[in-house]
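Quick one before lunch.
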Amino acid sequence: MTTTHTAIGYRDNLPATDERALVTEQVPTPEPGPHDLLVRVEAVSVNPVDVKLRSGAPAGGLRVLGFDAAGTVVRVGSEVSLFSEGDEVYYAGSIDRPGTDQQRHVVDERVVGRKPASLSFADAASLPLTAITAWEALFDRLGLTAGSSGTLLVVGATGGVGSILLQLAEALLPGVRVIATASDDERAARVRGLGAEHTVNHRDDLTAQVLALAPAGVDWLFTAYSEGQVATYAEVVAPGGHVVAIDDGPRDVSPLKSRSIAWHWELMFTRPVHQTADLVEQHRLLTRVAELVDAGRVRATTEQVFTPIDAANLREAHRRIESSRTTGKIVLHGW
Ligand code: NDP
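Model of the NDP complex:
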């Protein structure tokens, strides 16, 4: 007899608020492949990439979205070596496989981390994709190291990625002074609580505010919202500095090139996991993040929790993410 489980997915290319856009179905539970874990999903979180993939969904077929999940391993593939049944895990999945918005999910063990022991499933689900993205941005693209000294400007600091990136910078980059964007006083207090030393309001003149704090320009700039901003970045980043952007692009970066500012643009982690150079890189990174969490040096970024994981709550979470106004992460928990 085929075992089935509940999955929530999209059947048509319709707006999230359209009642027909999201359906709940019973689907066959897959057998894990040799390197796979079958996970009982306890919590998921929603990212802007879910919304972007939804609007690009072809009609027909159930498209189950979702990257972030935390749950319990219920079966392991024949060659699994890192995990056993009963282990509690968290991970960000892969674009080339069905998403995490379902009760049972199959994932390659090499992109999975052990859930931080000190966190609930809900809080653990807030972290994986944003932590991986922030880590890659800071350490791989911007090339920051524990010994780096200088100033980092974080644009989009209030969002999901910014909220973990600020904490990683505070925990691991003691010589880096962080300036963060926030659009009002409450949000400014929030980002200071996550490790920013100074705040600027990106709705006002960014150049004047940043140069008042860093007259020679900042050394590094992380941005989650670069549309229409490249010329401003050329003014606020010091010649020879580095910019990394993770939003949709590409952009015309000639203003930066003319000031010898290095530019990396990438909408990260939407590539198939099997194209990554080192498959266990994500496993190692999530293990390191879990250590930081359990040592009390990084906090979950959960801001809103919906219970249970169902179509109505997923629709509402997508609607809020689409507003581009949410702080931290939206998590869905329980079935
Ligand atoms: P969020 O939806 O969590 O960010 C929302 C926050 O960003 C808002 O609270 C708002 O705060 C701030 N914001 C919105 N517009 C601007 C702007 N123009 N300038 C500065 N801040 C702004 O997004 P994420 O952090 O999750 O993702 C941001 C981008 O990065 C998206 O394009 C996403 O696709 C991409 N990305 C995200 C990944 C992830 O792991 N979530 C992975 C890879 C890429 P305020 O009130 O201060 O304006």
